[in-house]
Amino acid sequence: MQKKLTINDIARMAQVSKATVSRVLNRHASVDPVLRERVMDIVQEHNFVPNVTATELANGRTRLIGVLAPPLNWPAIPEIMHGVSEYIETTPYEVVLYSMNLERNHSDVLDRILAMRMVSGLLAILPGGLSSHLDTFFQQGLPLVMIDDQKEPTHIPWVGIDNFSSAYEATNYLLQLGHRRIAHIMGPRHYYCALQRLEGYQQALLEAGIPLEPDLLLQGEFEPASGRRCAEMLFAQDRGTWPSAIFVGNDQMAYGVLEVAEERKIQVPEAVSIIGFDDNLLSAHMRPPLTTMHQPFMEMGYQATKLLLNMIDPEHVHKPEQKWQAFSSSLPDTTKNDHSSRIQIPTHLVTRTSSGAFHPRLL
Amino acid sequence: MQKKLTINDIARMAQVSKATVSRVLNRHASVDPVLRERVMDIVQEHNFVPNVTATELANGRTRLIGVLAPPLNWPAIPEIMHGVSEYIETTPYEVVLYSMNLERNHSDVLDRILAMRMVSGLLAILPGGLSSHLDTFFQQGLPLVMIDDQKEPTHIPWVGIDNFSSAYEATNYLLQLGHRRIAHIMGPRHYYCALQRLEGYQQALLEAGIPLEPDLLLQGEFEPASGRRCAEMLFAQDRGTWPSAIFVGNDQMAYGVLEVAEERKIQVPEAVSIIGFDDNLLSAHMRPPLTTMHQPFMEMGYQATKLLLNMIDPEHVHKPEQKWQAFSSSLPDTTKNDHSSRIQIPTHLVTRTSSGAFHPRLL
DNA sequence: TATACCACAGAAACCGGTTACTGTCAATAC
DNA sequence: GTATTGACAGTAACCGGTTTCTGTGGTATA
Asked: Global pTM?
């Protein structure tokens, strides 16, 4: 790449000091309009763009935000990232992607990342085991937002959904279809969202006057294989004990359940209704298409990024450097607590063919 | 965040000059082992990590590579990005994600990005219309790798597949199943890959002694709606003129074709065999599951990143700063031209239920 | 006309590193 | 015993900007 122009080159060409060039570029008021014009002409003529690194060093802050994410081929992550990108595009910031693979404890990596002072803020997507570590950084003043963490609520700014209400709504939907024996395949108990969903499920049953039946509660790992395993347990006994509907803790596990049903020729939804949670991209294409609770992942990414940037510099919203037009969010009023640091985004039920009215079963 | 330690602080504490501290940190040989030890102790005691920005400014290069990608919710992009992350993790580099949305011509944005000198190299995923613009940068010395660009081959380092051979293989597969009337729904003609796939298809037919029939060649836009449109045209006429198999230019269009078949109660594969191209994640879950030509997207991301980093600094491979273990690529010998700057990665056919042997049709 | 003030631009310090150059001291050569 | 050399650490320049401080000239005020 050809040698890059520096502010000194511009200064020389314009016959002014580099200080003046800097002031012109940063739109300081204290520059004579005539001079400003002359300098700007030269800047534009040569397509001069100041070196970011130098600017960042001088300013003591970067225009980078770190995004800590699970592997991008996980479900939902691309959608979240899409929302992140949509918002970032309206700002002068860029995203540094830290993709963490698997269970390895990345806290040392995290330490270095943050110690280097490369990013001015961090967006942590499903931080999982890292969240307590992140807490430390937040205490120390690092601008930080979590998306859908799976621990207890903390004071850390957070964007996610109301798992309790969503699960409550999902279960109620099955109740309204006439189901009474409703099983639940929950996620791992160490995930806060799994517990919340369980509670929503239980609350709905209790309100309907249906006693909780331990046999109808199983625990999986939030991935298809465990869904299979649980489904096999549910269908292992004699047909009279089967549930007529299953509320599965997430879509991934529901896929496993659907597979078992297909293998065993158990009709869905005629013999058993199945409802998932998440609305992953695949869910609309299952056999049969999966009824599920939709999580607005893209919106979550968008809102989380917005929140983070407001923490980093509250002014940026109105700066002229805005790269492009603002994203026309279709959900201006749906985000409760717009000014709080915990944003809950509404979910909604997507009814597809995997769920249907209860039919008394022919034994 | 608490005030960060600088190299000066360390120098003061160790009673040496900052130059010495710098030399210790960069493992220069010309430091007395005893002194080195003393400095390192202090560095470790305080968890000192040098400020990246300052380092980058002094060195005149950053440890960032830019990844120019379509929106992450596009098919295949997450898989490619996953491969990118896998490789990046083995290096001291990080990824800056430039997600470009839609058709907007981003060349001005690109100009600024590169003028700022923020990234030391660029990985362009499906650059499309931007590729000629990128060419200019490459000429000027910017380390650049393209993944699966859709223009004519250039001298720009590139990672992709052999579209001609893959299409040839796909078509041959249908021929071997006994099909003779094989339609092709191609992608837009301005995509080089679409042309290559067309040629592969034609070549296979010609070699089988089957004349090309213009009615059996349609053109779509690489997305589902156009697949629907083309399918409707194919099935518009009297049943005798239908193809017994359709080679669809990509999976997205094949989804549209499957929809039309389902609506019209045309049995797949009994009445018509369908084969796609790409093997997107959804394809295994179609009704029926789609036979398709698998593109190893993750491997493409991995190889492209490797190629790019070798261009940027050929030494990095053996540096001790390697963040983690090397990625154990399962395909060490499958990449032809390992030292060239055009890497073709092998595809393979994935046979699922949407394709089957030719049955003479009952009229 | 002298003084105060203001507008504006340049000089220089600074951000936090790296590195060319310089200087010191001890070991080796003559 | 002096000259030469080499090992090593410190000084200072440098990367390319931003910003504080200083200085100049013009205008308003007394």
From this structure: 0.91
